[in-house]
Amino acid sequence: MLNLDQLIVHFDKGLRTLLAPAHSVRKHPDEDVPEAEMSDSDKRHAAALMRINHVGEVCAQALYQGQALTARNTQAREALEHAAWEEIEHLAWTERRIDELGGRRSLLNPLWYTGSLAIGVAAGVVGDRWNLGFLAETERQVCRHLDEHLGKLPPDDAKSRAVLAQMRDDEALHATTAVKHGAAELPFPIRMAMKLSSKVMTSTAYWI
Fold first, then answer.
1. Predicted confidence (pLDDT) at residue 65 exceeds the cutoff of 90
2. pTM
3. CA–CA gap between residue 49 and residue 43 (Å, rounded)
4. What percent of the chain shows pLDDT beyond 70?
5. What is the CATH code for 39-205?
6. How confident is the model at residue 20 (pLDDT cuts 50, 70, 90)?
7. pLDDT class of 198 with cuts at 50, 70, 90
8. Residues in CB range of 71: below 8 A, 6 or more apart
9. Domain extent listing, the chain
10. How far apart are CA 167 and CA 52, in angstroms?
11. C-alpha to C-alpha distance for 69 and 76, rounded to whole angstroms
């Protein structure tokens, strides 16, 4: 059972995700990669792609916080909290890259966060195996999405490519960790529903 202090902590995390600059303990993956000359259209396109990935990290924060709120098993909760910690670093990386490209973050971030938090809480309520299964499937789909974006980036944008490549490696490890902790395989209809909802989010975040 959650107490008031825990709820306040999670509320504070939500406000920080939406309003405060994120910070990375690790070195930014593109730190030593030189900035390339790109056209204005290429910069706008790269910034829009990075905005989508930033939204994905906002959603990940909310999902994992919601799942951690309702996780019963200590190991499951720790796996979720560790994944959320690394997603904060991803937030920092994508935030800075958006700024460097002259872009902006999604205006709908509060909506993405609220919806993802509700989904995360619901996933946790049904049990830890399904909770971890949701984590594993989310990360698998994110890896496929990042692979697509790596192919869509402007050819000269090595900095964005370095960020997304490291994010993909981290997400793959999160999925593997969830499986090791006993993640259940989600039914096909749920996997498809997750894929469709992700498609709506990415299509909208590219523009808004």
1. no
2. 0.85
3. 10
4. 88
5. 1.20.1260.10
6. low
7. confident
8. 77, 80, 124, 128, 131
9. 39-205
10. 13
11. 11
